[in-house]
C-alpha cells in the first residue's frame, strides 16, 4: 500500500519533470502546488476548526465550566466534550492537516531519493516504482539534480535553505494565529508554542535531509501564506514586535 | 495539553520515519564482493572486510578513521602483488590501496596498512576499477576515468591521466587489449585508447547504462541498457544496433560462454542469446529482479535473484537446483575455489559460502 503511494508520487513527479523540460526543482514546486490544491479542503477545514476553537475560548459557558470544574479534571473534560458536541466542533480538526502532511512528507522524501537515484539500490527501487507504460523513464534517467545552487538529492550545505524554511514557517504560523483575547486561552498558548517549535524542527529537517524536501517546505509555506492572505485571514499584526503593536 | 502531546508525538514520529526511510537495508545500497585463493573481500557500509575462505572468520577489517562518512560498496580489486583497491562512495571519496600482508592490531580487530590513497575525485566510487598490466583504470561517478601507475611507489597517489568522459560511471570497464570500453549513466558508451588515453568514439544509445560492457566471440561489444535492449557495437567505429529486446531494464553484464551470452533483466527474465547467429536460444523467469551477473561453472550457470535464491541453471535453460540463501541478492556472487560466495541484503549474515551443490559451508555474521 505504502509502495503504491510512493509510486504515485514518483510517477507524477517524473511526468511533471518530463513535461516542463527536465528541471527537477520546478517539478517539486509544481508538485507541491498540486498537493496544496488536493489538500485545500483539509486546510480550509483546519482554518474553520481553529477559528471555532478560538471563539469557544471566549464563550461565556466555556469560561464558566473552566471556573466551575477547575479542580475536577474528569468532569471538566466531560463538560468540554458536551460543549464541543453541542457546537459541532471537532477539537482535533485543526490537527488533521498536520497529520496529513506527515505521509506526504515521507512519501516525497522517498520519491526524491528514488528519483534522483544516487546509488544502485535507489535506481533499482525507481525501476520498481514507475509505470513504463505511462512514462519512458529510461530516457529521462539520470535526472538532473541541479536546481539553482543546490543538488536536490543532498542537504544544502550553506544554511540558506534552512533559514528560509524556518523563516517562512515562522511567518506562516504567526499569520494564522488569531489575536489572544483571553489570557487563559490554552489554544493561543499552544499556537505560540508551535510558532516557535515548528520553524526550528523544519529548519533542522532542511539541514539534515535532501534540499528537494526544503524546496517543498518553502513552496508549501509560501502557498499557505498566500492562501490565508487571499481569504483575508492573515493576521499581519502578529509579525510586529509587541511594543509596536501597542503603539499602533 | 492533549493537542500539544499529539503534535510532539507526530513530530517525533516524523523524524523517526524520515530517518528510517532507507528501509531495513544496512548502508545505502548492496555490498561489493571479490575474492582470491584465500580471502573474500567484502565492501559493506563503512567497512571493508577480509574474510578467511577456509572458515569464514574475519581476518581483518578496514574503516577510515579520518572519514566517518566513508561508504564502501564498489567491489574491491586485487593487484598482482596482493593490494586490495577499494573506493568510498561517500565522505571524502577516497580510493584506497590496502595491504593485508601488513596487519596492525587495534583492540579486538586487525587492520590492514594503507599503502596509498587518492583523494582527488569529485564524486563517489561505485564502479570497480580495472587493472591492465601495471595501470589501474578507475571510473568515478564524477564522469572521469582516472588512470594510475601502480608501480610509481607514491603514497599520495596522483593519476597519470584523467580522461574526462561524462555522466556517472558506475561500471567496471572492459578491454580488448587495444581499447578500453566504458559505460555511463549519461547514455553513452566510450572507447578509450589504452596507449594514448584518447577518446576514440562516443556512442549515445538514449538510455542509461549501469552495467559493464562485454566483448563477444565475434569481436563486437555488447551492452545492456535501461532501454531494455541489448546493443551490439563495432569496437572500431562505435556504430551500433539493437540485437535483442528484453522485457525490462538490463542491468547485469552479459556473461559469455562459447557463442552464447547469458544475462538477466529487472523483471527477472534470464536470457541465453547466441551472438553469432543473433538468435535468442531461450529465456526463463526464475523469480525476482536480476542485477547480479551470472557466473559460469563448468556445465552450468549460477544465477542469484532479488528473491534471495541462488539457481544452478543448465545451458539448456533447465533449473538443476536452487538454494534459498535468504534476504535479497543484488551483488554478483563470486566463485572462489570450491566455494560460491553470496552477499545478500536484509539477512542476519553478511556473507554465505556454499559448496558446488548449494549447501551452506559457513556464514559471516552481521555486526551486532
Helix content of chain B: under 10%
- Give the N-terminus to C-terminus distance of chain B in angstroms: 40 Å
Proportion of strand residues of chain B: 35-45%
The backbone outline of chain A, from C-alpha atoms, is elongated
Main sheet: strands, sense, barrel of chain B: 4 strands, antiparallel
CATH top-level class of the domain at 286-362 in chain B: Mainly Beta
Structure write-up:
Chain A has 248 residues and is mostly helical. Chain A has one domain. Helix content of chain A is 70%, strand content 2%. Chain A has helices at residues 2-19, 24-38, 40-57, 60-68, 73-87, 96-116, 120-127, 137-140, 160-175, 186-208, 211-230, 242-247, and strands at 146-147, 150-151. In chain A, helix 1 (2-19) packs across helix 6. Chain A is elongated and about 70 Å long. Chain A starts with a helix and ends with a helix. Chain B has a domain at 286-362: Lipocalin (Beta Barrel), CATH 2.40.128. Chain B is built from one helix and 32 strands. Chain B has one helix spanning 2-19, and strands spanning 32-35, 39-44, 47-52, 58-62, 77-78, 84-87, 95-106, 109-118, 130-132, 135-139, 144-149, 161-164, 174-175, 179-183, 188-193, 199-204, 214-215, 221-224, 229-233, 240-245, 255-257, 260-264, 270-274, 279-284, 295-297, 300-304, 309-314, 319-324, 334-336, 339-342, 349-354, 360-365. The radius of gyration of chain B is 21 Å and the shape is globular.
Amino acid at each position: 500500500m505504502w509502495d503504491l503511494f510512493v509510486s504515485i508520487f514518483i510517477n507524477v513527479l517524473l511526468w511533471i519533470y518530463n513535461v516542463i523540460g527536465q528541471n527537477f526543482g520546478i517539478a517539486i514546486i509544481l508538485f507541491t502546488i498540486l498537493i496544496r490544491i488536493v489538500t485545500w479542503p483539509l486546510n480550509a477545514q483546519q482554518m474553520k476548526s481553529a477559528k471555532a476553537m478560538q471563539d469557544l475560548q471566549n464563550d461565556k459557558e466555556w469560561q464558566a465550566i473552566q471556573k466551575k470544574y477547575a479542580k475536577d479534571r474528569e468532569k471538566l473534560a466531560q463538560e468540554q466534550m458536551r460543549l464541543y458536541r453541542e457546537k459541532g466542533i471537532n477539537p482535533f480538526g485543526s490537527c488533521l492537516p498536520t497529520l496529513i502532511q506527515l505521509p506526504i512528507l515521507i512519501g516525497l522524501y522517498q520519491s526524491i531519493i528514488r528519483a534522483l537515484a544516487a546509488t544502485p539500490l535507489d535506481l533499482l527501487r525507481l525501476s520498481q516504482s514507475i509505470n513504463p507504460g505511462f512514462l519512458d523513464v529510461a530516457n529521462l534517467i539520470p535526472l538532473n539534480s541541479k536546481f539553482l545552487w543546490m543538488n536536490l538529492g543532498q542537504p544544502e550545505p550553506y544554511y540558506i535553505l534552512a533559514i528560509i524554511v524556518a523563516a517562512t514557517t515562522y511567518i506562516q504560523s504567526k499569520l494564522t494565529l488569531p489575536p489572544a483575547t483571553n489570557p487563559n486561552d490554552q489554544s493561543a498558548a499552544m499556537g505560540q508554542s508551535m510558532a516557535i517549535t515548528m520553524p526550528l524542527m523544519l529548519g533542522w529537517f532542511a539541514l539534515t535531509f535532501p534540499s528537494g524536501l526544503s524546496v517543498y517546505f518553502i513552496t508549501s509555506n509560501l502557498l499557505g501564506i498566500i492562501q490565508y492572505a487571499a481569504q483575508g485571514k492573515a493576521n499581519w499584526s502578529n509579525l510586529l514586535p509587541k511594543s509596536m503593536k501597542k503603539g499602533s | 495539553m492533549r493537542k500539544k502531546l499529539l503534535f510532539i508525538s507526530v513530530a517525533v514520529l516524523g523524524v523517526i520515519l524520515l530517518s528510517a526511510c532507507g528501509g531495513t537495508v544496512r548502508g545505502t545500497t548492496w555490498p561489493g564482493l571479490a575474492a582470491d585463493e584465500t580471502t573474500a573481500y567484502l565492501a559493506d557500509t563503512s567497512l571493508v572486510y577480509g574474510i578467511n575462505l577456509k572458515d569464514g572468520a574475519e581476518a581483518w577489517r578496514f574503516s577510515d578513521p579520518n572519514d566517518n562518512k566513508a561508504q564502501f560498496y564498489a567491489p574491491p580489486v586485487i593487484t598482482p602483488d596482493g593490494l586490495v583497491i577499494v573506493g568510498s562512495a561517500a565522505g571524502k571519496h577516497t580510493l584506497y590501496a590496502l595491504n593485508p600482508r601488513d596487519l596492525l592490531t587495534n583492540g579486538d580487530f586487525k587492520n590492514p596498512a594503507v599503502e596509498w590513497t587518492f583523494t582527488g575525485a569529485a564524486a563517489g566510487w561505485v564502479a570497480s576499477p580495472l587493472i591492465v598490466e601495471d595501470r589501474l583504470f578507475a571510473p568515478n561517478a564524477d564522469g572521469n576515468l582516472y588512470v594510475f601507475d601502480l608501480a610509481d611507489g607514491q603514497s599520495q597517489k596522483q593519476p597519470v591521466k584523467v580522461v574526462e568522459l561524462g555522466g556517472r560511471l558506475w561500471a567496471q570497464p572492459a578491454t580488448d587489449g587495444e581499447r578500453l570500453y566504458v559505460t555511463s549513466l549519461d547514455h553513452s558508451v566510450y572507447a578509450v585508447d589504452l596507449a594514448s588515453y584518447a577518446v576514440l568514439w562516443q556512442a549515445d544509445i538514449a538510455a542509461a547504462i549501469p552495467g559493464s560492457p562485454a566483448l563477444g566471440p565475434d569481436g563486437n561489444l555488447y551492452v545492456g541498457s535501461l532501454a531494455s535492449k541489448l546493443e551490439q557495437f563495432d569496437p572500431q567505429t562505435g556504430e551500433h544496433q539493437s540485437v535483442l529486446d528484453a522485457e525490462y531494464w538490463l542491468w547485469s553484464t552479459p556473461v559469455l560462454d562459447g557463442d552464447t551470452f547469458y544475462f538477466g533483466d529487472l523483471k527477472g527474465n534470464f536470457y541465453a542469446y547466441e551472438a553469432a547467429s543473433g538468435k535468442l536460444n531461450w529465456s526463463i523467469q526464475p523469480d525476482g529482479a536480476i542485477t547480479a551477473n551470472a557466473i559460469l561453472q563448468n556445465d552450468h550457470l549460477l544465477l542469484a535473484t532479488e528473491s534471495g535464491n541462488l539457481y544452478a541453471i543448465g545451458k539448456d535453460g533447465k533449473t538443476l537446483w536452487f538454494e534459498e540463501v535468504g534476504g535479497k541478492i543484488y551483488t554478483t556472487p563470486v566463485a572462489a575455489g570450491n566455494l560460491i560466495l553470496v552477499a545478500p541484503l536484509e539477512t542476519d549474515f553478511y556473507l554465505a559460502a556454499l559448496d558446488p551443490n548449494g549447501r551452506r559451508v559457513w556464514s559471516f555474521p552481521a555486526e551486532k
